[in-house]
Amino acid sequence: GGCLWAIAGHGGTVTEAAFSPTGRTLATASLDGLARTWSLESGLGLQVLSGHMRSCVAVCFSPDGSQVLTASSDATARLWSVATGLCAHCLAGHGASVNQATFCPDGRLVATSSLDKTASVWSAETGERLHVLSGHGDFLFSVAFSLDGQSLVTASKDCMARVWSVSSGECLQVLAGHTYSLISAAFAPDGLAVVTISYDYTARIWSAFTGQCV
């Protein structure tokens, strides 16, 4: 139950931390605008990921562990090399803070959600924006891929979640029923259901294919 390492070095609140797939490296994001990677064998810093112009609010590793993905209130996400700490792509196009960014399970695509009321799908290889997912009436707070990488679910302050086709960017289902802002949404492992959680004190389970609350 003892603390193994005290990871210190940021100049602001640490907003998120993520383990690499191997469990040997940690990535952190901070309000100081930086992300950092750390060795969990020594507790020492490895790379400082510097480039965002405002707070860094989210961080995750690619499925193969070779890249780190960050999201920032500067309205961009960035892809970084774990080995060098260099920025491979700046994913620019949102009109407001990007509050979440995630890889699809095979690592080929990235999805971002933003306070500009949209989500976006990007190529992780080229940084090109492939789809803009528009339809929500208020801020987006989360975005998540299905395990097969074919669908996305977004959660919004407009009290709704939406299921989208990754290949076309088309909205497939609108999950409406909560009475207050959503916090997040995620797919079940088999992709058949979606769970949403809300500030209305409830969680709901929905069919991903009919949009009905089950």
From TrEMBL:
The name this protein goes by in its record: Uncharacterized protein
WD repeats: 7-48, 49-85, 91-132, 133-174, 175-214
Pfam families linked to this entry: WD40
CDD domains: WD40 (cd00200)
Keywords: Repeat, WD repeat
Coiled coil (UniProt feature): none
Organism per entry: Alexandrium monilatum
PANTHER family: TRANSCRIPTION INITIATION FACTOR TFIID, TRANSCRIPTION INITIATION FACTOR TFIID SUBUNIT 5
Gene3D superfamilies (alphabetical): YVTN repeat-like/Quinoprotein amine dehydrogenase
